[in-house]
Amino acid sequence: MKLKVNGSEYEIDADPDTPLLYVLRNDLALNGAKFGCGLGQCGACTVMVDGKAIFSCLTPMLVVEGKEITTVEGLGSIDNPGPLQRAFIEEQAAQCGYCIAGMIMRAQALLQKNPDASDAEVRAALEPNLCRCGTHMRILRAVRRAADLMRTAAHGSERRAP
Amino acid sequence: MTSALVTRRSVLAGTGALVVSFSSISRALTQTLDTGQREKPPLPGSLKENPFLDSWIRIEADGRITIFTGKAELGQGIKTALLQVAAEQLDVPLASLKLITADTSQTANEGFTAGSHSMQDSGTAILHAAAQARAILVVEAAKRLGVTEETLKTKSGAVIAADGRKLGYGELVSENFLHLEAQPQSPLKDPASFTVMGKSTPRVDIPAKVTGGAAYVQDMRLPGMVHARVVRPPSYSASLTNVDTAGAEKLPGVIKILRDGNFLAVVAEREFQAIKAMRALSAAAQWAQKPSLPKQSELPATVMALPSQDTAIIDRRQEGIVAAKKLEATCTRPYQAHGSIGPSCAVAVWNEESMTIWTHTQGVYPDRQAIAQMLRLPPEKVRCIHVEGSGCYGHNGADDAAADAALIARSLPGRPVRVQWMREQEHAWEPFGPAMVTKVSAALDEAGDIADWDYAVWSNTHSTRPGGAGSLLAAQHMAEPFALPAPKPIPQPEGGGDRNAIPLYHLPSARVMHHFLPAMPVRVSALRSLGAYMNVFSIESFMDELAEAAGRDPVEFRLKHLDDVRARDVVMLASERFGWDSFQRRLGRGCGFAFARYKNLAAYCAIAAEVEVERETGRARLVRAVAAVDSGQTVNPDGVINQVEGAILQSASWTLYESVGFDDTRITSIDWSTYPILRFDAVPASVDVHIIDRPGQPFLGTGETGQGPAAAAIANAVANATGKRFRDLPLTRQRIKNVIGV
């Protein structure tokens, strides 16, 4: 079975009912999506599929074949972090950090669809994701900052365009 | 043994001048003490137990510097803070330092990373070790350069002479250079000159955590690693009567099924194969269970009826108090869960002789001791290495998962075994924060001051942490089981159930009783702040009731009973920044205030909260919180703010929503739908944390100081908004609606 993850195609040899989470973590050695509950109750496993945030712990591999899967690794790297990653670092929006990759992916899906999301819309979008350290205030600030960074980048590229 | 001695002697001989010079430093340092022969004062922080400087700092000839700590990163930011301390006192760039954390083969034994002790213990040790190392480097440089020490400066990892000559730290060291016992006093830098300590510094662990770097034990993938799952019993009382393993054994990828008494586990090549096999095995297992749990609806009465060991932790009540008014109250708290977002995990490998375990335990040494006992191995045959897990907030399933991994790994020599707990296992089997009851009565005199105070707390132990194998689930479940060691109260001044049971307020007549309850119907242990959460909630709720009875403002009433200047400072700052005096209470909106100094010896914290209560639903929401905190010398201000913000939100979740559910046999709150916690819809509009820095003062632990004050500030704000007092935790919408509902 072929999966398209972060822009690359992979041939995966696993049972088709295997949840995407385990394929990402074990077959592709991607750490971003985390096991939290396996029940779709906490959002630690959140990744994007065709631009939508989904629970990878509940999504069998077979239903995402041929779709664009994006994990936090697909947004940037430690040396070249993407806008959300940069914003989370700048806001120091993590304590243990276990929930953060999921938060970032859910925020990415929101901001791709709605770059001008209001505070209320950000809160509503993040509702499925749990944080136990109480980092919520910083997470909200980081998403806001990322939205600004993305807008600035978008305006910049518009200006540069002929 | 002999060779070690010889090496040591030759080192001392070889660096004779250095040793003499170091003694001259220590002599200079001790001149501030009285002259004459007397015993050395105790060494600072964890230097007491681990006095050699090279237990903390090692400098290589190429200039590389490694810092060692026996404490562990739990998401509290300790790595960054310790590196700041070392970088400041050594005069080296923070980014050039390497840090090794809790590892039984590499670091000092600093017990548990718990009790807000890390800065006090390890931070203080590294502060002094680094300052002394720097002084020794200066002495050595002075000798080599033929100048006096006073003419030398240190900067960026080098000693610099007035004429510009420069010696890198690496050039100055020889073998075992820092294998010297620390002195009680150190040439610490003047806080006014700090460039790293006291400055907000980005956490060193965050970039990897937000980009998918390998940050957690869950992320470990060792060559040949296999995946295990444990089938836990369905309840505390359950024993395995029969299990037909044939079906599970035939499943794809299954390598092994392990049964040892009530311990049942499966190992498979791939993770999802292990999960499927676990489910099959779970369905095939037959357990005998019996009702062993108290009635949840009668929990407070059950707690109070348990046999108790009673201690008056203060007893200075006076006779003949003339009371103008008397008040009393009873408060209750249910069992509450750590609820780590990532269930516990560990990786272990057995090589026929020794066991290595990667674990997110809070105490690598105690965990090693417990696991070694369980496996009947000498402790030196077991190595525990800390690797981060999800935030733990105390004793969660970490140690148990480590024991599971070790027990399973021993049956598969040479193959690394990764054990990942499932969500329902963490929720049902973690040791909870104990249920508690408090009773308080007090008298006010004619002037409205507290004339008499009588307080009592009923609680289980707040620590069943390892040390002995009996603390580990796997060891309890084995065919030849280990029994949980008899629980003991944690003595004052830190206390366990009675932590913060003694108010910091001026009380002319007071008694505080600790009713310690050895019997534990539900598995319990340390949850962030232990009994302080409940005691501060109780005391600070009652202070508001007393203030009201005295006709005084709650903040003014607290200040009237506070002598400690630093306590008064946080109370005044929180009140001022909140706008306490100008707050306009209106229907459904109230404000509340609370204060405590954690353990009466760590950080000071005052919190003002604004709460909104929906009359129709009973839903209470924290709208705004303002905190003031005094952690002594602040190392990473943003780190302190992050911790206190987190404390406020987590405590809000405990206080408004959380209680462990159970029937007569088993724990029934086994996921996030049956154990709801704070979600984004209930996150406040703002949380502001203000720090009162105390340059040069000792570090005061900060990680837990907010738990109690946040709870009480919220409860006081609910009382202010509704006109009704709620004394039973949590303050659920049902409880509030029952009292005020329209």
Concise overview:
Chain A has 162 residues and is an alpha+beta fold. Chain A is built from five helices and five strands, in the order E-E-H-E-E-E-H-H-H-H. Chain A has a single domain, classed as Ubiquitin-like (UB roll), CATH 3.10.20.
How is this structure best described in words?
The complex is a heterodimer of chains A (162) and B (742). By secondary structure, chain A is of the alpha+beta class. Helix content of chain A is 39%, strand content 12%. Chain A has one domain (2-160): Beta-grasp domain (Ubiquitin-like (UB roll), Roll). Chain A is built from 5 helices and 5 strands. A 5-stranded mixed beta sheet of chain A has the order 2-1-5-3-4, with helices on one face. In chain A, helix 2 (83-90) crosses helix 5. The model of chain A has no long low-confidence stretch (mean pLDDT 95). Chain B has 742 residues and is α+β, with helices and mostly antiparallel strands. Chain B has 3 domains: 2-207, Aldehyde Oxidoreductase, domain 4; 217-290 and 338-429, Aldehyde Oxidoreductase, domain 4, CATH 3.30.365; 436-462 and 497-740, Aldehyde oxidase/xanthine dehydrogenase, molybdopterin binding domain (Aldehyde Oxidoreductase, domain 4), CATH 3.30.365.10. Helix content of chain B is 30%, strand content 20%. In chain B, helix 14 (532-550) packs parallel to helix 18 (707-722) and helix 17 (637-657) crosses helix 18. The chains are: A alpha+beta (162), B alpha+beta (742).
- Give the number of DSSP strands of chain A: 5
What is the overall number of helices of chain B? Answer: 19
Supply Rg of chain B.
Answer: 28 Å
Q: So, CATH architecture of the largest domain in chain B?
A: 2-Layer Sandwich
The dominant shape of chain A is globular
Q: How is the quaternary structure best described?
A: heterodimer
Secondary structure blueprint with pairings:
The complex is a heterodimer of chains A (162) and B (742).
Chain A lengths: L1 E4 L2 E4 L8 H8 L18 E4 L2 E4 L12 E3 L12 H8 L9 H14 L5 H8 L9 H25 L2
Parallel strand pairs in A: 1-5
Antiparallel strand pairs in A: 1-2, 3-4, 3-5
Helix pairs in contact in A: 2-5
Chain B lengths: L1 H13 L1 H15 L26 E3 L5 E4 L9 H13 L6 E4 L17 H28 L7 E3 L2 E3 L5 E3 H4 L33 H6 L14 E6 L7 E5 L2 H4 L4 E7 L2 E6 L2 H14 E4 L10 H7 L3 E8 L8 E9 L11 E6 L4 E5 L4 H12 L6 E5 L11 H12 L7 E4 L2 H7 L6 E9 L5 E10 L13 H5 L32 E7 L15 H19 L3 H7 L4 H14 L10 E9 L6 E10 L6 E11 L6 H21 L28 E6 L15 H16 L10 H8 L2
